[in-house]
Fold:
Amino acid sequence: MYSEKELIIEANHSYKRYWQDLWDYKRLFYFFTWRDIKVKYKQTALGVLWSVIQPLLIMIVFILVFAKVAKLSSIGGAPYSVMVLCGFLPWQLFSKAVGIGSESTLANREMISRIYFPRIVIPISNVLVACVDSLIAFIVLLVIMLFLGFLPSYKIIFVPFFYVLTFIFASGVCLFFSALVVKYHDFKAIVPFLLQLGIYITPVGFSSSIVPEYLKFWYSFNPLVGIVDGFRWAIIGRDVPLYLPGLIVAIVITFLTFLIGLVVFRKMEKTFADVI
Amino acid sequence: MSNIVVKAENLGKDYFISHTDANGLQKTEHNFKELITSFVKDIFIPTEKISTEDFWAIRNLNFEIKEGDRVGFIGKNGAGKSTLLKILARVTIPSEGKITMKGKVASLLEVGTGFHPELSGRENIFLNGAILGMSYNDIKNSFDEIVAFSEIEKFIDTPVKRYSVGMRVRLAFSIAVHLKSDILILDEILAVGDNNFTKKCLNKMDEITKKEGRTILFVSHILDQVERLCNRAILLQSGQIVMDSDVNTVLNLYKKT
Structure:
């Protein structure tokens, strides 16, 4: 007892054991994710079935709007619905993670002002919840593809890579906003607006191939473009090209975003309990 | 038994009080441009706060707490007790000074924090235990004891939102006393709950501190509880330590004022 580590808290010094602490509390990621998934389906008649029905319904709307009404063309000989759904996977992950995760610090204000634990667990576990949802949607997509008789290519083994990329990007954005919203509640209004905007500048309902050649590189500065293209390249396969410069830009911006998010979060979390 | 487990040196915490104008807006950073510029400045140039008014909730606190000590912090409202406990619980950081602590710290600053109303008592025991730093195996091993102590066996699978206040207190407290922490920080949590259960809690705490040599830091306005539980008390007034001695001496002084 009392033995092992000595904990030193000093004013104006950043805490030295930050990462060690996070490691000690690692199971909290699991518990918070578990809690949020569990709570979502409490007191619902259909329970976990909602996790399948929900993406299915949204997917149907997407297909109707973009494939049947807008009549845009597909890529790689894939049914338009499949192309749309490939873009839907990372977009759904991102928008859910950022939409809910950005306010997660406020939603857990009671805990933040009364119990110590690494605060970073809160926004990140919201991203994890969105990941679980997206993986379920991924399985739904595979079943749909089976029904349509359009099978994925071997490149599907690269899907995890693009999931990781989406996770890192969503986490960065989430950390950034969830830290700022504690002090400036304005972001409660700003984030949903940005997400609305995001769906128009991200090629979810259409293929990025409709973007003019000279804009292609600049378009990649939205990392979700590279990510969505990557998902399509991996799942549809066939002759869908992979625009490598775009992917590289996406990777660089993803990591940059994560870094900025992390720095801002660590800077602001010190005063969370005082200002929340 | 003379190991020092908590040592505070020159500890202080100030809050920046911002004054509001007629619209209820904060005078600092109330338009978006100022907000952005001040924020960007904050990131790149770590400057001192532009403080129009500083309020020191506590200042220049020095004390040492030994292993197995049960220390009661007493004082009037606004004396800085809760601020001090918040710093010790690591919820907030000090603005001045230094604390050195040894061992595992668990804090209960308010009853039932971290409970999710939609989850059952059973699920909340696991969730709350994890938030308070217990390992999964620890929780599993103490589960039956926690349930028995809280006297809510029958409702363990009912969502906590349907619990009465008393039931929530009992459950939260049972988790807290079964934490395997070396230092337990408790703020006003025994103010609610019926007499019998309070007595049971005090007995349990007596037992764990004496048997397991745990240290307790305790804030309460109910002096009887302080007297019953603590062997030492620290009297705070306006953020300063007025007296730090054995519990009876301090309580006598406090009752006179």
Summary: The longest helix of chain B spans residues 195-212.
